[in-house]
Amino acid sequence: MLLVSNIYSNPTCTGTTVVAIAYKDGVAIMTDRLVSYGKMARYRHFCRQYRVNSRVVVAFGGDHADFQWLQNLIERQTFRLKAHDPTAELSPRMLHGYLTSLMYIRRTKLNPLWNILVVAGMQMQNDQFEPFIGVVNQRGVAYSTKSVATGLGAWLLNEMVENELRQNGEKLTTISLLRKSLELSFYSDCTTSNEFDISIVDNEGVKLRKPETIVGNWDIAEYRCDYD
Prior knowledge:
It is a single chain. By secondary structure, the chain is α+β, with helices and mostly antiparallel strands. Helix content is 31%, strand content 34%. The strands form 2 sheets. Strands 1, 4, 5, 6, 7, 8, 9 and 10 form an 8-stranded antiparallel β-sheet that branches. Strands 2, 3, 11, 12, 13 and 14 form a 6-stranded antiparallel β-sheet that branches. Strand 8 and strand 9 form a beta hairpin. The longest helix has 21 residues. The radius of gyration is 18 Å and the shape is globular. The chain starts with 12 loop residues before the first strand and ends in a 15-residue tail after the last strand.
């Protein structure tokens, strides 16, 4: 019999904020390139995004090892799907539903996967592809949205992102907004790196851009002394 005390109950190496924004013709998703051991920068230059197929990207916050296990599981589900139809692919809504069920089942067994997952992609709707963002947390709570920031970004960034999206929903503006989001997160979250990845999912497929870095404006440091 499995005792609760023996269940893996604390994440070890973790990633922090994920930001995803749906714009007019696609979805942009941003993560920094750091996995931390507690507050220590353990693994640098690590991509926290996983390209599932030409229409879907999954990004994670939370435990690194659990997400590696999930990557393997998603690959196996893809192989099972293609065994029945070689042309079939997981859609973002299909994958989001599968991960929601999985996270909820693990939570009910008192052995959760310690991740917040963001599924971004292009979903076929009314004979055309439309942007889709789905979020599921370690308790199996799931929803779809037009924009999301997870981790500490849920407190720091969501309001800013929503306000900016009301004014403009174009691709270049969205990418600029993601860079601004990373900069604000970098100022306030000690587990955020200044190196980051941005992926674009649109009708042309998935494009993972080259890693970028920011420097930031540290003249404001003396005024921001209330954060750890």
